[in-house]
Specification:
seven-stranded mixed beta sheet, alpha/beta
């Protein structure tokens, strides 16, 4: 310690300037903890028993006598109105409760009822209308954010708020890709609305508008993704309702065969990332309409066929004979695809095929690929298998050193599409037709005859 500090310390210790200790006021929580620890308190503070509170409020509303409710009962009463045992679904009981609340009006209770309004919002339910009228008449005792929401957007008017907030979101996302939470925050709306049923109603209308468009732009895609995502990039809400509307907004405007392939690929990759391949994870696509689901399944069927042809071309066709024979194969199966005759397609890859597929995904093309793994084959390195369903037929075609096998699905056991692993035996056992791939391409006539006989489907594959 320097001399200056030592002298100053001695001066502080002088009788005329004693150093006094500083005492902080003891907190109420600390006093309660000490009382409980020394057993000076008779009992712990009462914890909220929601089930008991629901019972008490239901009884009070039924008898139209709320005198037995304590101050704490009233404070927490909005949390006991919804769900099993709550009175929210009873117009008469809710009317009695709200009349009683009006006599004991407190900002905290009204604020909780405002949250209840958002979290149980429904255009067709009577309780929303009841809460709407009550909150409009008593919004002046709420916090500033709630009052401003009512002034700017008629927030508590259930007949106007949806349209007003839809217009807000539409104008904010016309030139940017803000998440709905950011839009609400910038509009100074109360915190937490983005995950409420009120927000879901707004999103539903916005997504329906986009789904009804006849075309989709890159800006539309970014808008839908942003509105349906959290700031962390996860889905805002994983309910079947939101998933269904989101998928339909992204898919249905791309129904036209002339839709931009790059936009189709962008949408396909995003939906596969969020929901998984519908051929493998059908439950996650439960809320999506049949029309939208059929569209992405057509895209995936084409993708599987393209994957088979592309990988075979890169991995297997290493000499002129193989390439010449492959030329016939490509034209044959593509003719069925372009005619819309291939209902489903699935690819099974050997070791080199898997490596090549993974390299495609890593190129930054936004392409997500689904395929199965070949676990047993004489040529496990380079074998590639195409599985097709054409109406009542299951067809398995091999890249090389394997025949084209056909099963009639209602007559014999056939290999199931969309399994994760297959062996060569499983992909050949029990077929009723098998055809060798002659270099001349004559095998195509034999396969085409079976397809035409069993399904009535036919193409001009020689073009």
């Amino acid at each position: 310690m320097s001399l200056g500090l030592l002298a100053l310390s001695k001066e502080w210790q002088h009788n005329s300037m004693p150093i006094r200790p500083v005492y902080m006021p003891e907190s109420r929580i600390q006093k309660q903890a000490e009382a409980l620890g020394t057993k000076k308190a008779e009992k712990m503070p009462r914890l909220l028993d929601l089930a008991a509170l629901k019972t008490a409020i239901t009884k009070a509303a039924t008898q139209n006598n709320f005198d037995a409710l304590s101050v704490l009962d009233w404070r927490y009463s909005p949390f006991a109105l919804a769900g099993d045992g709550g009175i929210l679904s009873s117009f008469e009981l809710m009317a009695r409760y709200l009349l009683a609340v009006k006599k004991k009006l407190r900002p905290r209770i009204v604020r909780s009822l405002a949250r209840l309004y958002c979290n149980t919002f429904s255009i067709i339910e009577k309780h929303t209308e009841q809460l709407s009228h009550f909150l409009i008449n008593n919004s002046t005792i709420l916090d500033t954010s709630w009052q401003q929401a009512q002034i700017k957007y008629s927030f508590f008017d259930h007949t106007k708020v949806i349209n007003n907030l839809v217009n807000l979101c539409s104008s904010c996302t016309a030139s940017s890709q803000d998440h709905i939470s950011i839009i609400f925050k910038n509009a100074a709306l109360p915190v937490g609305l983005q995950s409420s049923p009120l927000a879901l109603c707004i999103l539903t209308i916005l997504l329906k508008r986009i789904a009804n468009q006849t075309m989709l732009t890159e800006e539309d895609i970014k808008r839908v993704i942003a509105l349906c995502s959290t700031e962390q990039g996860d889905l805002l809400n994983k309910t079947a309702l939101l998933i269904g509307h989101m998928a339909e907004a992204l898919l249905l405007p791309l129904r036209s065969p002339n839709s931009n392939p790059a936009l189709c690929q962008r949408v396909q990759s995003y939906l596969l990332h969020c929901l998984g391949d519908p051929r493998l994870h059908n439950a996650q696509w439960f809320g999506v309409s049949t029309e939208a689901k059929e569209l992405i399944l057509r895209w995936l069927t084409k993708q599987s066929l393209d994957l088979f042809l592309d990988i075979t071309d890169k991995v297997v066709n290493t000499d002129d004979d193989a390439k010449r024979m492959w030329h016939f194969r490509v034209r044959f199966w593509r003719s069925y695809l372009h005619a819309g005759h291939i209902d489903e397609a699935w690819v099974v890859l050997g070791n080199k095929g898997q490596a090549y597929a993974h390299s495609i995904e890593k190129r930054g093309t936004q392409e997500t690929l689904s395929f199965a793994i070949l676990t047993q084959s004489p040529d496990i390195e380079t074998h590639i298998v195409l599985m097709l369903r054409i109406d009542s037929l299951t067809i398995v075609d091999w890249s090389h050193n394997g025949k084209c096998h056909i099963w009639v699905n209602n007559r014999n056991n056939h290999p199931k599409l969309y399994e994760k692993y297959y062996t060569k035996t499983e992909l050949e056992r029990g077929s009723i037709h098998s055809f060798t791939h002659y270099k001349s391409g004559s095998w195509r006539d034999e396969v085409a005859n079976v397809i035409r006989k069993e399904t009535g489907r036919y193409t001009n594959y020689s073009r």
